[in-house]
Amino acid sequence: MAIERTFSMIKPDATKRNLTGAITKKLEDAGLRVVASKRVWMSRRQAEGFYAVHKERPFFDELCEFMSSGPTVVQVLEGENAILKNREVMGATNPADAAEGTIRKEFATSIGENSVHGSDAPETAAEEIRYWFSDTEVVG
Ligand code: ADP
Ligand code: MG
Predict the structure, then answer these.
(1) pLDDT the model gives residue 35
(2) How far apart, in whole angstroms, are the C-alpha atoms of residue 16 and residue 138?
(3) Which of 25, 36, 44, 86 has CB 3.0 to 4.6 Å from 76, enough for a Cys bridge?
């Protein structure tokens, strides 16, 4: 299994409830290493650009409104099989379906306000990392 990098966000519902440390601990306990991290309050336009793949979905407006409603922590995570491992520790999109012990099971409040984002494939991981970080900000 190769060492990979993936992109993660701690969403506004979680930063608001002071869960940045608790969520980061779950990521680190899963063997993921935080190799870049910053707190950003994204604009509506940045949210629309980041989630452009979902622009035809009925929840797009709600999602962009929520993601620009407060601070987010954007991170790059590194580790063995990091993309899949992060998705596992995040849990299912809808917290009602998320497995015990996952971040979304423990912390998410709804399918929209679900505490974390994680890239779903190598191509999206590279694209999402580039959207938020320059090369010099990622320090393995
Ligand atoms: P994931 O974040 O698990 O990869 P998706 O890529 O399908 O999930 O959706 C992106 C984000 O859009 C979700 O994390 C969630 O915040 C929001 N979302 C997805 N489905 C819904 C829905 N039915 N209603 C409201 N928001 C949703
Ligand atoms: Mg997704």
Answers:
(1) 98
(2) 25
(3) 36
114 is in an annotated binding site: yes
The tens digit of pLDDT for each residue in 44-77 reads: 999 999 999 999 999 999 999 999 999 999 999 9
Q: Which residues are catalytic?
A: 117
For residue 134, give both structure tokens.
């320059």
Q: How many whole angstroms from 13 Cα to the centroid of ligand 1? A: 14
The full set of domains in the chain, from first to last, is: 3-137 (3.30.70.141)
How many percent of the chain have pLDDT more than 70? 99
Q: How far is ligand 2, taken at its centre, from the CA of residue 121, in Å?
A: 9
* CA 12 – CA 66 distance, rounded (Å): 7
